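JOB MANIFEST
job_type = single_chain_structure
chain_count = 1
residues = 212
[input]
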Amino acid sequence: MAIIKQKDQRVAVFIDTQNLYHSAKNLYRARVNFGNVLKEAVAGRQLIRAVAYVVTTESGEERAFFDALTKMGIETKTKELQIFYGGAKKADWDVGMAVDAIKLSSRLDAVVLATGDGDFVPLVEYLKAHGVQVEVISFGKSSSGRLREAADEFIDMGEQARKFLLAPNRFLMTTPSESSIPETGSHPEIEGETREESGGPYIVGSDTDEVR
């Protein structure tokens, strides 16, 4: 659906970091250029707030990533990785991200959700019912069909993959080993997944660090 984006629109961007990271990894074996994601989401409008939701690990090595996002104007909200008896891990920010969007919605004209998670469909419907324009930006191949249909606009990052991805040899930063960072809401050990590659979702890029 084509929408009109006015420069005086007040917009907030909510970034599901884990969702974008795992989509980029599984589809393209690459990392996300968060700088370009933010730029595309704002589209020259009045940015009221941009928040990235991330999971912290015991090592605390994510600090450099947080600092880099802050310099781009993106706030970070953190939640500790939950480790259950037997070693199962879980990291889920869905409720917190939805609550923040609702709380801020009365001050916004548009909300941009950087996620492909279908669990956000009720949030999209709620915001639209209250007069807020809702846009979703994510990788189309890994995004919920219902989420795409519910949004006023869906931006498929996969259609411009070079713009939104960083090639493996052009990282600006890496942090803890991937083995410590599960997919959002997943239990890797229960699902039989293995994570042997190094590097986590904490990669920050600029316009010049795209996949070639």
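[summary]
The beta strands are 10-16, 31-32, 46-56, 75-80, 82-83, 89-90, 110-114, 133-138, 153-156, 165-166.
Residues 166 and 210 are 5 Å apart (CA to CA).
exit_status = 0
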